[in-house]
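Suppose you are handed only these lines of text.
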Amino acid sequence: MKTVTTLAELRAARAALDGTVGFVPTMGYLHAGHISLVQLAKQQCGAVVVSIFVNPAQFAPNEDLSAYPRDIPRDLQMLEDAGVDLVWLPTPEVMYPPGFQTWIDLETITQPLEGGMRPGHFRGVATVVAKLFNAVAPHKAYFGQKDAQQVAVIQRMVLDLNFPLEIVVGPTQREADGLALSSRNKYLNEAERAAAPVLHRALQAAQAAYAAGERNGEALRSLMQRTIEHEPLARVQYVSCAHPLTLQELDTITEGALLSLAVYFGKTRLIDNVILD
Ligand code: PAF
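From them, the structure of the protein bound to pantoate can be written out as follows.
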């Protein structure tokens, strides 16, 4: 596995890769969810590139960039074990050179859900992902379904800006009790960790109601809300039943839906979602 930092090194190493190149962008502190994306990329591509960059531009003003967990030696060992070909660790100066002023702003898809709670977040995500795509020039790029709005934003950006690549979405990886894997789970104390699977239970309850014929968006939102309110340690930030592409809230489901939610356990904010086909 080759590890590079500068843009020149990345370009030289990228040019030496043969065949279909798969790319997994990350902010590090890797877990089994990231490795499942690497494995998917390895199945589908001749070479796999991973980036690790904690992107300051996607942290909202109230979020603490310095508190974001980091462990590069552990990440590199996990990527080596997973058979990655090339790892790029760009510096902030490469991604945001002095005087930087070129941003990618998607107009409406970034407004609801996570975008509503985390001002500026998707402007930072879209801009950094576009820069990573430009530099790595992959044929396929891999993202987790867990960050459903991020997937929708990046798919829209790829269409709008004609990036010549395919977005592949990997399924959410879960603990045995249903809790979606996330770097944030490590902040949960024992009681919060025991309570956190209520997110998945709420989504499953709504999924079951949909399977039984419920098509009213408000009925599904209210079912998820009530399920979570049974858990005293959980504090709901939002529950949503939205159009899977536009992310606008639905009154009636006619062409599928994205069920998503954000819930606090103490200071830890967790998100999860399922797609209704
Ligand atoms: O999902 C993430 O880890 C980040 O948002 C991404 C896509 C690497 C951009 O910084």
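What can we learn from it? Strands lie at 2-4, 21-26, 47-52, 86-88, 140-144, 166-170, 234-242, 257-265, 268-276. The pocket of pantoate is lined by residues 25-27, 55, 58, 125, 128-129, 147, 150 (CB under 6 Å).
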